[in-house]
Amino acid sequence: MTGDTITLLIADDHPVVRDGLRGMFTGEPGFEVLAEAADGAEAVRLAESLRPDVVLMDLRMPGTDGVTAITRMAERGLPARILVLTTYDTDSDVLPAIEAGATGYLLKDALQDELFRAVRAAARGESVLSPSVAARLMDRMRTAAARPAGPRGDEPLSPRELEVLGLVARGSTNREAAARLFISEATVKTHLLHIYGKLGVNDRAAAVAAAFNRGLLQPGASS
């Protein structure tokens, strides 16, 4: 941030939406819109060159979609916080976006003041979720926690989940793992919940033990 001003990049394929968001934030003290992007690829390029504090990211865009753009920004170590702003709150939209590294997830029916608060929170690195998205994630957490312990092995861990588990096995905290992987701490927690469910365990230690027993992690692997 420049002083108390939060810089923004708006990524949405609809010009009317971009114009509306630009007008909204331009008229509010403490915000500066640096640029607009019409697709994910352009958003990545602009985020890399302009280094905004927060990117307002739509998900379903032609060409490079929002989740792909979020993933590429994380891979390049860009410091911008990503706040998804979309009309969709299905599992197929929410979970990939959060796993890719989004700091927050809001729907486009959010009130103006709610959006301002969310951007300020995202700039501080705080997770922001719309009520419907938060409820959906809580349901998934309860489902994962209710699964009985024991080997399941019917669903493989993703490469990102293996990265998270490897860091946990080497003693990293959630915060340290998030910094190492350039994702939010909330995203690390989401990955861990998925890992617990897939391995049929209920905590970090059991997950690491199960991973070693199944050969998913190797003793003495370098960090």
From TrEMBL:
SUPFAM superfamilies: C-terminal effector domain of the bipartite response regulators (SSF46894), CheY-like (SSF52172). GO terms for molecular function: DNA binding. One of its GO terms (biological process) is phosphorelay signal transduction system. Signal peptide: none annotated. Residues 150-215 form the HTH luxR-type domain. Keywords: DNA-binding, Phosphoprotein, Transcription, Transcription regulation. This is Response regulator. It comes from Actinomadura physcomitrii. The lineage of its organism: Bacteria, Bacillati, Actinomycetota, Actinomycetes, Streptosporangiales.
